[in-house]
Each structure stands twice: as structure tokens, then as C-alpha cells.
Automatic annotation (TrEMBL):
SUPFAM superfamilies linked to this entry: Thioredoxin-like (SSF52833)
Pfam family, one: Thioredoxin
Protein name, entry field: Thioredoxin
InterPro entries associated with the record: Thioredoxin, Thioredoxin-like_sf, Thioredoxin_CS, Thioredoxin_domain
Length: 105
């Protein structure tokens, strides 16, 4: 799991045909810190099925606004350049994996 800028994510969205899970977070957000181990677990378990990346909403406000991020943390599931679904709040890794797998069918 790597932290990217909005511009870097846009490049990945354009060049990637697979699934990308974007964790939109803020350094001051408690639930955002709680979800980090869960996302690391998700990235390991779904290693070849999805790319998990992080985006600091404070450093990339325009990107977060463009994708209508309202609450933190927000997980955006992106496929072929489009947001196909989102989760807001802190979730356990099994819930995130179920979310991804339901949308990836």
C-alpha cells in the first residue's frame, strides 16, 4: 500500500484496467489511523486482484472534492477509470474484502 497524490492516482486510473481501492484519509483523523492495519491486510489478501493506495485529502483537496469525498476515511473502488462504489467509515478487513469481491464479479 503506497501513498499517492491525486495526479498520480489519475495517471493510474487512466493506465490501469484493474481495480484500484483508494483510501482517502487525513493525518488528524482517528478512524483513518485505525483502518491502516485493515487495509494492509486487504492489500496482502487481494494482492493480485486489486491495487490499494492512499490519498491524503488535506494535501489533495481538489481531487477529494472532484470525487465527492464527504467523510473520512472514504474508500473509493475504481474500475476502468470510474468509481463503481464507495465505503465511508472504518471497516474490518473482512468487510472490505467482501465489498471488493461483490463489486468485482
Amino acid at each position: 500500500m503506497v501513498e499517492l497524490t491525486g495526479e498520480q492516482i489519475n495517471q493510474e486510473i487512466t493506465n490501469e484496467n484493474g481495480l484500484i481501492l483508494v483510501d482517502v484519509f487525513a493525518t488528524w483523523c482517528g478512524p483513518c489511523r485505525v483502518i491502516i492495519p485493515q487495509l494492509i491486510d486487504v492489500a496482502k489478501q487481494l494482492d493480485n486482484k486489486i491495487r490499494v493506495v492512499k490519498l491524503d485529502s488535506d494535501q489533495n483537496q481538489e481531487w477529494a472534492s472532484q470525487y465527492e469525498v464527504q467523510g473520512l476515511p472514504t474508500l473509493l473502488l475504481i474500475k476502468d477509470g470510474n468509481v463503481i462504489d464507495r465505503l465511508e467509515g472504518a471497516y474490518m478487513s473482512n468487510e472490505i474484502i467482501d465489498f471488493v469481491q461483490q463489486k468485482h464479479r
